[in-house]
């Protein structure tokens, strides 16, 4: 099934919902308006449809191999990565001074979504590299920046994030890797890191690892973790590559999905390089502030994982629609034909496809609105505007990550179901998305970790003020919807209102009980995240409905607008409808979770 | 993770909810009371824990291979199947005159659930054999019965069901395989069948295929399909094996899961045997009634697939609990410890485990109550009692199949999530359940097919009378709950009432609109199935709560009873809570499904 980048819906969301015109008014982004976005997205579509997507299935089947520390990437990946570098895609959002194009996140995110949909495994390498660049930009010394960033921005080198150790997953306080300072200002790093995406590969000549480790005198816990750059090959002052550093890939994991993305176990300091025992590392920023810097990468990465959920969902949706149009089976239930028809005619198949589609469109709108908030937060000249946008963006990150990835498991599962028995046969391709998606609610912080963030930092810390401010904006949208002549608008206004009121009940519950009954609140944290993500996405779909109704009335792009209206209506009837049950579960379900004795499981 | 058969909960459900004592009062089942059940289940547990379960993971990794028509089963499967035969497990529920033990389904189903949980792939061979026996018992001539059934009951031979062809999946009207009558009363069968579970293997000396095909003058559609026995090797009059028949395994599928179960493409009539062109087949029953007979197998098989959903869920649950007890990560949210604790302490992990457990216990209770209804229907001397039980059983079959298998995808997915990053690594084993479970809502009729059955034959045909009669029984349970002194009972009474009232609203909607607006009704058919399955399972959990409260008060088996109460409460708070949203979706969501233009997807 050939992949088609969803350029049209991306542009609709950017223009009508995320307000790219306002982003283009921010100094520095003057050239980043709608026309630029359109041109970039169409070019990106060509690259992703033509170069990246065709390697998705083959990469899954013939995935990379490990041989004595050397990892061979899937066939074609090296050439595709070179094409990505050549096209400047790695540097799209990076500063011009390091060779990037300095485009806003709203454009970059849309391009990244395309690459993820085209080939999730492939996309991860440039995503991780982007995260490493971000950490260096934020906290690296000028020397580190100058030495490493340009070759990462150009796509000549790649980057990794080294957080997890066997005993330290969600709980980074347990990190044990060591970094011992040397007289020359460098450190010698040792320890074992696991789950390192693209931790080793043969696509580029060097790999820049960003590694969490403890210095000898560091305090216990997360306040004693520092961040280091550990390049695979040392980099000489003239930029040429030097000795092989003491970091070694002990194995790659046999995984359920994203198989073409090598997940490495990396061993530091086992005297397997050319530098003697201990990998040579360079401190990023100050000692003991590593977690803080890593969180910068993590926040960017969490947003990106949300896009992965969206991307793999889009791909699964396109696959399922294609099959449902082709596969002829059974007569229609309404008797409108005497012969068997394509299964897309059957109401249950339509319901499944619309569920997929509604979730995707809601998530995309939320993600691009979030990207616009990021751009505003980081670049708007008015500090108050920037601050407000930052708070909004930070509220959205756990929703974009958690809601979109949990849904991606549902969406890709529906994609298999639409295919019937064929969906279970690997060759069909639908199963790959189901396997690939399953990591998304886990890595870069499980959904529970996102939900903790939502409950703690994003909701309780300000007593629910931001959550309520967002709800007030949603209420404005309800008012606009209710005032419209269309029945669809009025119905969606009521549905949105019910959802918002449920959200407010839950916010009050969280704020009022998080200290007195934390077990009950955290038993409902994931349902709260799903409720909030559902509401915010539904809010965007409601805004989209109004735009689409107006444009349809004006005769603009009738088929697209009619589909948008139908999808928004479906969102109201089927997706917002989930909120009532989530609310009941949260408000009234904590005690029965606590009641179960642990030894009785 | 060693598997432990859930004997205790099975016995609880059999005794307290499904009424095995009443089954033992039915003539012929006098010896099949609680003590027998206990002895059989404990023996079954030994076999499944000791012999079958250890082959689950190895079978997934080293799954069977195809070589020029010959299929080698996974290592150890042949020996395990011999042990299954030796132990008499294949004939547990079969008539004594054919070498079976004649035990009721209520006991057989519990044993089968254990085998499915132990090893889903392995279990399928005996399940399919059981289905083939059932079809022969129902419609086969005495000669066919005598020649084939004893060796199938003993486990010496296995059986298959051959329905699907590339163009005929859910829609059997499209079956094209041919059967041409010969002068000697046999038929020559030709055509291609796909997705034939254990269609070829080397575990037994012969395989008895039951095949749907059309005779030359058969009418179009489903009324022109006949059923044939086509043995892999012909069987001589003295019972010895004769010529190799003309049925050939062209390939086995590369699947997402249940990999150790070979899924064959079978070609009939390609002159690859020793009998000349055309596989020699024997008509079962009368010509053109094949679908009717096949439905007998299908109904048994659908029930069994429901047990598969239950079984794989149980296995995934046990795996997840084991990991959650071992894995230490992060401090408790309530500050009750300063150190990191096992993740089972964290409320979100408990919520996930309880979701798994509550679904499993509800499904198990529903399945065993269903098995008792089957036993009553087929064996009760009072025709009126039997008829009522048959109707109840038939109402339950789509729920047992659809609800338990859809949930199995959710449950096994939660199982992966509990494991965090480890869950995505194949070696951990959690991913296998996630892959295995995905076929269950598809084969033996997709969830939509089950839902069509529920809407059509089971709900609309009698104007909702049976559905309402079941609701009236649930109302009785509510009354009993409400009258109890416990707060848990009173709360669950209200939750069950709300769920039942939603169910009744939906039943009225279905009955009133199925003719006038079938598209809207069938857009809600799967949500209706999920609602009904949720309600009936929840009803059983409510009954279980009352029993457990009484037994706990009497000091009987305190830990088990306390856990049952906690799980029933959780079911009310978290699972029954889903019904409100499902109801809204069904009652108010049909039009937005219809509104989407097909060409706009």
UniProtKB/TrEMBL annotation, chains A, B:
So what EC number does this one have? 1.3.99.41
Concerning InterPro entries, the annotation shows: Acyl-CoA_dh-like_C_dom, Acyl-CoA_Oxase/DH_mid-dom, Acyl-CoA_Oxase/DH_mid-dom_sf, AcylCo_DH-like_C, AcylCo_DH/oxidase_C, AcylCoA_DH/ox_N, AcylCoA_DH/ox_N_sf, AcylCoA_DH/oxidase_NM_dom_sf
Pfam families xref list:
Acyl-CoA_dh_1, Acyl-CoA_dh_C, Acyl-CoA_dh_M, Acyl-CoA_dh_N
Acyl-CoA dehydrogenase/oxidase C-terminal domain span: 288-454
Q: Which reaction does it catalyse?
A: 3-(methylsulfanyl)propanoyl-CoA + oxidized [electron-transfer flavoprotein] + H(+) = 3-(methylsulfanyl)acryloyl-CoA + reduced [electron-transfer flavoprotein]
Keyword Thylakoid in the entry? The reply is no
Any one GO molecular function term: flavin adenine dinucleotide binding
Q: Where is the Acetyl-CoA dehydrogenase-like C-terminal domain?
A: 471-597
Identify the residues that the record assigns to the Acyl-CoA oxidase/dehydrogenase middle domain, covering every copy. Answer: 161-266
Q: Is Oxidoreductase set as a keyword in this record?
A: yes
- UniProt entry keywords in alphabetical sequence: FAD, Flavoprotein, Oxidoreductase
> Which principal EC class is assigned to this enzyme?
oxidoreductase
Q: Give the Acyl-CoA dehydrogenase/oxidase N-terminal domain ranges.
A: 77-156
* Cofactor(s), names only, from the UniProt record: FAD
Function comment: Involved in the assimilation of dimethylsulphoniopropionate (DMSP), an important compound in the fixation of carbon in marine phytoplankton, by mediating the conversion of 3-(methylthio)propanoyl-CoA (MMPA-CoA) to 3-(methylthio)acryloyl-CoA (MTA-CoA).
Indicate the family of this protein.
Belongs to the acyl-CoA dehydrogenase family.
Protein name from the UniProt record: 3-methylmercaptopropionyl-CoA dehydrogenase
């Amino acid at each position: 099934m050939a992949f088609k980048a969803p350029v049209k819906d991306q542009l609709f969301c950017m223009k009508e919902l995320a307000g790219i015109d306002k982003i283009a008014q921010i100094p520095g982004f003057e050239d980043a308006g709608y026309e630029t976005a359109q041109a970039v997205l169409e070019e990106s579509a060509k690259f992703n449809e033509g170069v990246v997507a065709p390697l998705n299935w083959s990469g899954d089947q013939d995935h990379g191999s490990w041989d004595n520390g050397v990892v061979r990437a899937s066939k074609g990946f090296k050439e595709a990565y070179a094409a990505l570098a050549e096209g400047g895609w790695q540097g799209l959002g990076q500063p011009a001074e390091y060779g990037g194009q300095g485009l806003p996140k709203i454009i970059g995110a849309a391009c990244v979504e395309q690459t993820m949909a085209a080939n999730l495994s492939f996309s991860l390498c440039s995503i991780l590299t982007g995260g490493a660049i971000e950490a260096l930009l934020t906290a690296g010394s000028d020397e580190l920046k100058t030495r490493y960033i340009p070759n990462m921005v150009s796509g000549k080198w790649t980057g990794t994030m080294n957080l997890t150790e066997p005993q330290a997953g969600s709980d980074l306080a347990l990190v044990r890797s060591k970094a011992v300072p040397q007289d020359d200002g460098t450190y010698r790093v040792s320890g074992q890191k696991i789950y390192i995406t693209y931790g080793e590969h043969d696509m580029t000549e060097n790999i820049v690892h960003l590694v969490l480790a403890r210095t000898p005198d560091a305090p216990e816990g997360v306040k004693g973790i520092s961040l280091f750059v550990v390049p695979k090959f040392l980099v000489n002052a003239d930029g040429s590559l030097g000795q092989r550093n003491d970091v070694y890939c002990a194995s790659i994991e046999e995984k359920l999905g994203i198989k073409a993305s090598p997940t490495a176990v990396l061993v530091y300091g086992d005297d397997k390089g050319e530098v003697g025992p201990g990998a040579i590392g360079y401190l990023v920023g100050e000692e003991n502030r590593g977690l803080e810097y890593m969180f910068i990468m993590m926040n960017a990465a969490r947003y990106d994982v949300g896009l992965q959920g969206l991307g793999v969902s889009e791909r699964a949706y396109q696959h399922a629609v294609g099959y449902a149009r082709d596969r002829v089976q059974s007569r229609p239930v309404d008797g409108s034909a005497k012969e068997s028809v394509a299964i897309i005619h059957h109401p249950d198949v339509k319901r499944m496809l619309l569920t997929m589609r509604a979730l995707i469109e809601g998530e995309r709108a939320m993600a691009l609105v979030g990207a616009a908030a990021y751009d505003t937060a980081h670049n708007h000249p008015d500090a108050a505007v920037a601050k407000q946008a930052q708070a909004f963006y930070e509220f959205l990150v756990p929703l974009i990550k958690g809601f979109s990835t949990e849904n991606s498991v549902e969406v890709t599962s529906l994609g298999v179901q639409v295919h019937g028995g064929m969906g279970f046969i690997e060759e069909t391709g639908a199963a790959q998305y189901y396997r690939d998606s399953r990591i998304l609610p886990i890595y870069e912080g499980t959904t529970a970790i996102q939900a903790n963030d939502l409950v703690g930092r994003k909701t309780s810390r300000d007593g629910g003020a931001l959550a309520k401010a967002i709800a007030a904006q949603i209420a404005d949208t309800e008012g606009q919807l209710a005032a419209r002549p269309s029945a669809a608008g009025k119905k969606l206004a009521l549905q949105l209102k019910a959802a918002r009121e449920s959200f407010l009940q839950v916010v009050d519950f969280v704020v009022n009980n998080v200290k007195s009954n934390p077990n009950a609140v955290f038993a409902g944290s994931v349902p709260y995240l799903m409720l909030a993500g559902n509401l915010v996405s539904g809010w965007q779909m409601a805004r989209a409905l109004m735009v689409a109704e107006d444009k349809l009335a004006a005769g603009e792009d009738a088929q697209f607008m009619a589909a948008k209206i139908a999808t928004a209506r479906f969102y109201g009837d089927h997706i917002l409808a989930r909120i009532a049950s989530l609310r009941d579960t949260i408000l009234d379900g904590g005690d029965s979770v606590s009641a179960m004795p642990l030894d009785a499981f």
